[in-house]
Amino acid sequence: MDKLQVINVSKRFENHQALDHVNITIGEGSIYGLLGPNGAGKTTLIRIINMITAPDEGEVWLDGKPVTQDDIIKIGYLPEERGLYKKMKVGEQAVYLARLKGMSAADARRKLKYWFERFDIVDWWNRKVEELSKGMQQKVQFIVTLLHEPRLLIFDEPFSGFDPINVNLLKEEILHLRKQGATIIFSTHNMASVEELCDHIALINKGKKVLEGKIDEVKNRYRKNIYEVTFRGEKEKVLLPEDYFSVQNEIQKENGEKQMVVKLLNGSTSNDLLQQIMSQAEITAFQEILPSVNEIFIRLVTGV
Q: Which of 78, 84, 164, 284 is 20 to 30 Å apart from 64, CA to CA?
């Protein structure tokens, strides 16, 4: 079942077309990477999904029907621009924000106790927000975002400002939330995290969706027919017909093996490459090198 559908959504601000007939479908229980360069329209789209702003054209559907203000309670949103009331005490503010999401004070305190212990910030309950580090404040906002157990979570650059240990902590929590059935939109410039966490991705550039699909399918779509071969043999060098194979790199490994990266040319196949090398050496490893999400991102955005 589709959890969220963005249908033909457009938005214009004065002379700037922020979104241009964008269509996106996000399946239930998935982690969906929303990618794009600065100014591409990602934040505008997220704000439309949250009903912070309205589209000029198009609709957003949640759970099979057009989204309304009553649906906002089903959404947890962690914006890129963080914001807590600096003079309020941490626990007091967390309870206040939870009650805005429809929770009772008692339920909010009970769940906050669990999450504060899980994130090791119990000692900060009665401290003012201004006394917390940026990372501590982000932990509090992350907790408040998911406290009311929304079925749709939107994280906009959730790892910004975190050290590697806390980034790993949040990644584990995001994966756990998906396991529990939450649908997650994950907007970031960190492509390594996208490959690690996301099932599907969409790339928005200059207000238009230019790419969408499962990560594995997308990487296969942009494959370059490049293979890495590890082998051993008596010959100083394996020779390949230059009309059909282009050697991109060749190294001598410490254990006496050799490794080469080869691009297939003029309709040659991986079987052709294997046969060429097997006639001259013993192959010990063979794999296709698929482009990373980062490489695909740069290629589509820059055209290079």
A: 78
